[in-house]
Structure formats: C-alpha cells, structure tokens
Amino acid sequence: MKKYKLRTDLIADDPNLNGKTITYNDISVTIVNNHGNYITIKLNDITNHNNMKKCQNILEKEIQKILKLNNINDKDEGIIIGLGNRKSTADSLGPLVIDRILVTRHLFKISSASNNKRCISAFSPGVMGNTGIETSDIIESLISKIKPKFIIAIDSLASSSIERINKIIQITDTGIHPGSGVLNNRKELSRKTLGIPVIAIGIPTVVSSAVIAIDTINYMYKHISYMKDNIHTSKLSIIKTENYKDKIKHKELNINERNRIAGLLGTLSENDRYSLFREVLDSVNENLIVTSTEIDFVIEKLAELVASALNNSLHRQIS
Amino acid sequence: MKKYKLRTDLIADDPNLNGKTITYNDISVTIVNNHGNYITIKLNDITNHNNMKKCQNILEKEIQKILKLNNINDKDEGIIIGLGNRKSTADSLGPLVIDRILVTRHLFKISSASNNKRCISAFSPGVMGNTGIETSDIIESLISKIKPKFIIAIDSLASSSIERINKIIQITDTGIHPGSGVLNNRKELSRKTLGIPVIAIGIPTVVSSAVIAIDTINYMYKHISYMKDNIHTSKLSIIKTENYKDKIKHKELNINERNRIAGLLGTLSENDRYSLFREVLDSVNENLIVTSTEIDFVIEKLAELVASALNNSLHRQIS
Amino acid sequence: MKKYKLRTDLIADDPNLNGKTITYNDISVTIVNNHGNYITIKLNDITNHNNMKKCQNILEKEIQKILKLNNINDKDEGIIIGLGNRKSTADSLGPLVIDRILVTRHLFKISSASNNKRCISAFSPGVMGNTGIETSDIIESLISKIKPKFIIAIDSLASSSIERINKIIQITDTGIHPGSGVLNNRKELSRKTLGIPVIAIGIPTVVSSAVIAIDTINYMYKHISYMKDNIHTSKLSIIKTENYKDKIKHKELNINERNRIAGLLGTLSENDRYSLFREVLDSVNENLIVTSTEIDFVIEKLAELVASALNNSLHRQIS
Amino acid sequence: MKKYKLRTDLIADDPNLNGKTITYNDISVTIVNNHGNYITIKLNDITNHNNMKKCQNILEKEIQKILKLNNINDKDEGIIIGLGNRKSTADSLGPLVIDRILVTRHLFKISSASNNKRCISAFSPGVMGNTGIETSDIIESLISKIKPKFIIAIDSLASSSIERINKIIQITDTGIHPGSGVLNNRKELSRKTLGIPVIAIGIPTVVSSAVIAIDTINYMYKHISYMKDNIHTSKLSIIKTENYKDKIKHKELNINERNRIAGLLGTLSENDRYSLFREVLDSVNENLIVTSTEIDFVIEKLAELVASALNNSLHRQIS
Questions:
Q1: Distances from the Cα of A175 to the Cα of A25, A172, A194, D268, angstroms
Q2: pTM of the entire structure?
C-alpha cells in the first residue's frame, strides 16, 4: 500500500481494492481496509444547511469509529495538527480547522477540568518555505514535549479527478506526508515515525492541469458512447438532462472505438495517458496546480464541517 | 470586432489581426488596431523587483498613449472603476487596485487642489450577486451625478490559454462587459453607452477546464512534433532543456499525423475541439473555472503594478 | 432634536427625554420619541449562542415595528446601505452586514420572484477618503436610479461611554450623517434629503480618549461614595463583589465631597468636564479614537446579529 | 531590574535610570544599561516613505549592535519567534513580522547555501488560548530540536502612555514574558531559561483605560500650568500652536496648585493615581485594553519596518 499517499486522494478509486460503500442518509461512505483503514465520505452540497448537518453527523461517527479502531480511549489526550499554508486559500484547510478547535489542555493544567471534556491541544506548524524548518521536526519536538496519546492531522489534498474537488473527505490511520504533493522526501507522520496513532483527515482542494485533461478525455468517451446509444434522441435534450453525469457513468468505448476517435492516444491505458499529459505539461512548465474559483467561499464551510465534527466526537460527553 | 469581449482575452491571438509587437527593455508589447485599440503587455516575473519596475514603466507609458489617443487632456477629471468581487481572490483585481488609487476629487471640492494633480475618484461597485443591482446601473447613475470626462475600468479576465494566466495585461478603449465571462447579457460599459471614453485594463486570472484540455492537446502535438524531429536525442535531455516551450513554439503536426495520434479528435479545428470539450464538460457540469494556487501571492503584486502605473500616469506632473 | 446625531449614541442617555424602558427576555429596550423614534437595545454577551438568539429576536421585532411606524408595507422595495470603511475593523460593521444580506432585486428583474420574498438590494458606498466622492452623493445617485421605497443604513458609531462599546444597538428613523463622527458638514441621509424613510441602525464600536477619562472620574466618584457608605466592610470584599457596577450605579457624591476629592475639577458639570478634557487632549493632539482589542472577534458576530435580524424581518414571509 | 517586563514598555521612562539619548538623523534613540541593555527608538511618522527608510536604518544598526554585545557572530544560526495572536490586529505584530522574514535554514539543509547568508528560521507559536499549550513550552521544545545559537522574539506591547502607542520600538537582551500583559505567571523566555541569548523587539500597540485617564490628568496639569504662565495670550492661539505638546512638556504644577485644581486626587503621586484609577476601573470591570482605530493601517507598516531591518542586519553580507 506504499504507493498511496494521502496527499493525493487516489485510494478509493483503485478498482483492485475491496472497498465497501454504504449510504447513510443520502451520503455515501466508502471503506477500504488494506494495511490500514481508508474512509471516503462523499459530501452533498454543504452550502445547504441540512446537508451540512448530515455530513457533519456522518463525519463525527466515522471519526469516533477510527479512534476506537486505534484503541484510543475517551480520556486519552490528543493533539490536532493543521498542516498547510494559511496564506494560500486552497491550502489553508488545516490552519482554518485549528482556529475552530475547542482546546482544553491549558484548562487541565490550571485546575482539574470538567469531567466531560477531553484534554485537547491544537497547532498549525506552518510550511517549510516560510519557517525554514522541516514540518515534521516541529511536530516531533512538540510531541516529545507534551506527550499526547494520539494525533489528528488535517490537510488539503491534491485531487485525483475534477469531480472530487471540495466534494469528499478522506480519513485514514496510515499516516500523512506533509507537503508530499509539492516537494519530495518530506518525512512521514505516522505511528511508525511518531510512536502513537496518527489519524489523517483530508479534503482534495487542488488538482493538476494534467488531471483536468485526462478527465476531459474520459468524459468525452463516455459522452460519445452515450450519444451513440441514443442516436435518435435530440442532442440538445440529452445534454440538458438532469444528472447526465450519472447517466453516462458506466458508459465506455471499446478500444477500436477509442482508436478511431482519439487515435494512438485512445489506445493508451489511463495511467499511460496521465504519464503522457504530465510529461507534456511538465516539459513546458505549464502543469499548473489549480483550484476552483469557488474555493474562497467553500474553504470556510469545509473547515467548519471538519472542526464541528472533531469537537463533537472528541468532547462527545459534553452534551 | 463584436466577437472580442475583454472578459476573455482572445484579441491579440487572432492571426487575422494585424498585430504589431515591439519589445522594450525585454518586455513585449503587442498593439492591434481594429475598430479601437488593443494593447497586450507580456509581463516578466513580477515577484522580481527589477522586472516589476520595468513592467510598471511600460504600463505607465501605454496608459498615457491611450489617454492621448482618446483626446483626454492632463486636467480632465477621471474615475477609476474596480470591477469584480473583493471576496473572490482571483476576481479581486479591480477592488484591490481601487484600494491603492491616489484619489483627489474630494480635495478639489474642499479647496483649489495643487496644480500638479488631476481630479481623480475611484469606486468598486461590487457584483450583482451581492448587491442585487446591475453593475452598469450603479456606474451609470454615479457617472451622471459626478460627470467625469473619462472612465478607466479594471477587471480580472478569463484567459484564453494556460500560459497567459497572471502573465499579461490588456488595455483597450473599446469598452468592457462587467461579468460577461460568467453571466450573459450584462450591459456593456463603453463610449457608446456612457458617452465618454472608457479605457479597460484587465489581467487574465482564471481559465476554464476546457481551455486547459485544449492547451494540453496542443502542447502534445508540438511536443511529439519536436520529438520526431530530434529522434536521435535522448528524451530526457530534450525535456530538461531550458526554454523548451520556446523551442517547440512553432512546431506543428500535419493533419495525417494528428489523425494517427489523436484520431477524429486530431482532425478537428481548434475552434471545433474547444466546442467539443466545452460541450462535454458543460454537459457533466464539470467545466470548472479555475485559478492557479499561486493567485493568493500574485494578486496583490498585480494590483500594486496596475495602481502604481495608474497613479504615475494620471498624476504625472507630481514628480 | 437637532443636537442628536446617530454617529454619537447620546440619545437615550439624556435624562430630559421621556424614555421608556421595557425588558423582554432579560434584554432591555429603551424607546424615546422626540421628533422621531429612537430605540436602544442593550445586548447581553452575544458570544453565548442563546443570548445571540434572544438579541436577534428582539432586534427583528423592533425593526418590524419601526418599518410599520414609517408606513412601509411588506411588499415595498428596500435598499440596505452599509456605511463605513471595510478596511478599518471597528468601522466595518456596515460593509460586513451588507456581505450577509439576502439580496433579491436581481431575481425580481429576471423573473417574477417568489411571492414570499421582498425586493431587496444592498450596497457599501465606501468612505470619501478612499473614493474621493461624498458618500451621500453616491447614495443619492443610486437612489434616484433604482427608486426604492425605503432605506436602511447600517453604521459603526462613536460611543458616549466605555460601557456601551459593542454592547448596545440603536435604531432611529430620524436619519444619519455618514462620517459625522470624524469630519464635519457631511450631508445628512434622511427622509428630508432623500424623500423616502431612512431607518438607521448603529452599534457604538469606538470611543474617544476624553470619554474614557470622563468615565474614569465618574466611576471614581461612585466608587468612593460606595466605599464611604460601606466603611466597615473590607475593601477587598467590596471590589470582588459580583455586579459591583450595578451596586454603585446610583451612588453620587455631593458637590462639597467632589470638591474635596477632585478640587475645581470636581465642581465642573459633566459637560464642562468633557469640554475641558477634550480641549486638553485635542490641544496635544492625543484625543485618540480607540476601540477595544476584542473588536476583531466581536465585529463579525455583531454583523451576523444585525444581518440575520434584517433578513428575517424583511423577508419574514419566507418561513 | 525585575520589575521591568518588556510586555509593558516602562523602561526608559524611569527617571532613576541613567538613560542616554542620542539623536541620529532626526530620530532619537535612548539607551539604558541596567542588568542588561534597553534601547528605545522613537519613530517619526512612518507612513512617510523617507521617515520609514530612516527608522529602518537606525533599527538595523541597533540590532547589529545588540547582537555584537551578546557575542553573536555573523555565521551563528538564529531563530525569529513571532509572539502574539494573528487574529487580533493589535496583537499581530509578531506573526506579521514572521511572514516577511527571509528564512534560509531549509536551504542550508538541502545544499551548502551561499556564503553571504546566515542560517535563519522563523516561527509563530500562536497563543495559549488557541493552542492549549504554554507558548514557552512550544518554543523550548523547538529550540532543543533545532539548536540555534540565538533567539530574536517579536511582540506587541502594552503602552505606558498614550503618546507611545505605535510610536516607539524597544529592544532588550533581558528576555520577554509571552502574554505577560494579559495573564500572569507565563514562563519567561531569556538566556537564563533557554541557555542562549534572547533579544526581544517590541512595539507598544495597546493601552489600558486607566493609563488614558492618567495621561489626561497629566496633560491637564501641564496645559493649565502653561495657560497660567501665558495668561495674556489668547487661549485660541495657544491651542492652535504647532507642537503644543513640546511646549508644555516640562510644565508642572506644584502640589498646592494641583490640590486646588484636582483636590485629593491632585496630591497623589503618579503611581498612586494609577493604582486608584486601575482599582476603580477594574472593580467595575471596565479597564478596557484599547488600541487606536488607525491600527489596521499601521500594523502592516510596523511589521514591514521590523522585518526589513531584521533581514538586512541578519543577512547583511547580501548586498
């Protein structure tokens, strides 16, 4: 399972993994177990207040489950780490979640804090480009000082497809590589390196231009396949159909059709096509990492969602 | 010239237009005259202080030229309008420029202001989604009240290619359509509708996913064409070459080669390919408008560049 | 009633005005009627969610009442104007409220909007120092273009005492003077100048140093008066008492006592003392306008409070 | 010297300290040596570009001097710590300086960095209310991990007078107490606790209401004293005088005059008056910590000033 780094959210897409998808209250949750647990929650439109509440509930439950799977007890002290760069909107999920965490550790130090709260601290280590310090060094030194029983790390992820941007939450207990989407050889944060459970929670907020090009070609195949099968329907009414994406979801072209439509490009596997597009864009230095222009309006809501679920699941005896 | 709207910066790309490109001090300026003036300045990396100064100088001179071409005198009162949404980073160029404009109109009202300053006001009308008011209505009513002699409107643009994002400035005296990139039928701001010269200054900061896919395919053709011509050179050394983009700039595949490599897709004209990709992405509701993740760090510098050039060219007798 | 300008919230303090105070659900509302209506709502700690809800409810009802008193019907189109400077935290209440207003006017223009919403637009005109344009000119020109039936103007106010900062909301239908706290001779926004009802809603967020000095002397008198009457109680237990402010509220020193304690200063009326302190601080250019350092955390909540109450009372048929 | 904590900038005011004031290029620098070095630089209006440059130059030189006094060599690795709360404008000086520091430590780790730069890292630990962790614990653990040779800590300070707010910079090598202005018993950051030199740089940005009241009374005495001595001059022309503050600077009333004017209050020492006002305001819970409303416009410039001086003095071999 080495090849899956949380920084790119490829996990649940792998057809070879025995993922199990359950739908609670309209929201689908996919669970993969492979040398660790991977949970993917598909968010409904969270600008809607009711959807927000539903998503928060599911996330809260999944956090509680993964804490239990890692033998973390209700009284165990934890630290929340917000990875990423506060100044870069698409990379600011971690710090924005930290801003909203209900911290209690200092109250435990002052007096015996109330029984129904857990001892929690929260911290944003910044990024190496701004601090000059390896992020994992900052975290390691802090952990060795305050000795929590577990870590929850929050981060923005690079998306493996357009349609996942700002639309899913991933949770894993296999660790996280701060900055691995951008720079190589960052040290991993995991139970192996830190000696305590590390739960990572991430939301894909950025995507590379190569992925956008790949997705466009894939949608083109599906679109043409659907058109071919519905040749007698007016093109306009096809496209105007609600949920057209769901309709064409399982449509495929066979290799001969793909060859006719897209030549040699059509005969490449998805992995090879991705390698080609990436090579092309990297070589002209235009494989831009981009984010949806709606990010300015969505990132605060995503942070609110993650922070509320964390506050409720960590201090759950409160209410 | 109706088809060119400043909101998408297609103008200077049109091979049918007799554009003239001049290079001053490393910075290329392309001028097209077609029922109005269109100027495109190609920015060098403006995070470098020296480049910033050079670009500012060129922009300052081009603003002065277009003011003269529109018979605007040194003493004529002007208003700077910052279009776009302050809350959306990629769309905030206009309001951020307004924040940096040296306004003097209120000083002229209080006393006879100093001789070496022009009477200038500055205003950000917001966006219709937030005000409920057509942006052009706000501007028209204000113009009819304060009666300036000319308008300079600043806006973020949608880019016609990946490589232009945050990299060029366009100036025109043919008017601007606030919000035309997103909603249709916005009323145009121009000499025709307002009765006074309207100079528009824009920088492309966003791009559609369809354009990214088109650009990827185009770069692929050029890349393959170059590889074919340099078949005996090691692939790795090709790609690692500095300025690879410039090297492949004029490389093309003929239609047979394109057909072999990209099938039917390869035989489409660029316009038809764009229409196809746009249709595909629109039909699945994934034609995301995206922006580079570096926007958070670049937009302030771009605003600084435009505002400094405006302040210097409008109040140029100051120093 | 000319001397009361909403920009300083002196209204309900005047002992000569026949104010009536009613307490609903722990929250006191004072109503003064004197050539117009003045309503002062005393906020409980709004960082507490329940208090926030209570305050919002009261504010909602008072807005509905004053709309009715001004003969504004449920279907009448209105515009919300957010006065003040977005870049100055303590002066940003108006623009922050505008950001949260549910605007509908553009929907009415596109189609027949739903029956249960009112036609509302919202606008932040900025401040003259940044635009070069008299704020009242911007508003007047806009009003004459879009012709609403009434205006609601939101503004940050200068406080007449320390204890009112961020703690009360004032509503009046007598108009407002944008910027009157800082510059003189701003044109007034009122039914008289604009021809339609102008409801002003303000919250004091800043205070002058002279007012702080005055309040300190006043509290000293009350404190000494209370101490004198409780001479046998230990000083420490007096001060540690909860609600000490309420306890000393009606304590006063007579003129002889004040003379002994504060000399000639003690014999001055409150107005004369204010004039003296203002003269002293103005003459050394140190009559700083200050704001509580908690403003960064409170201003968003205050904006949320006003905007929610406005949205509910203006579109009240929604639910 | 125990009683002087950098968090309140009382140092150079103490008449018992043998401070030496030198004026370079219009800018006065006061140096006190008492169990450590205390330097106070009086800033001229830094919104003026030339003054900004002058202040930056002086600050740069004073930083170099204090580094030398602490035996810090040109090649010694250092860390800059930005104390305070990024979300509270008046308390954000530290984090804003960190955002502008030229960090190089990560480059030293990757390759042998260029000879003319020093190894520098930079870090904002946040505040205990948000992290749940004692700030000094975060710093101690980081120091023990990365082992720098010296620390420079930046912080916002509480001012000892109105006229110093945003107007002076203080430097000391005696250490700093993060948060000591607000909470008690914060652990001190100093050579004694950390084992390496700790240079603290602070700017007073906030002031208590009690201090404002004290200053008002003091200015009143000086004003009355001056008026008395200039009884034949018209009052209006006195107050309108430029630099009135300088004129009355050394004016005092004797104890009889103070008694007549301010009664018993007038006979108190300044310390006793401060204790009284503080007791009064604390007991009614109104000893607000306030900041000038201009802070939103000034804090970025102050951060720019400190960061530029630091970058130049730490990497001074660059140019």
A1: 29, 7, 10, 65
A2: 0.93
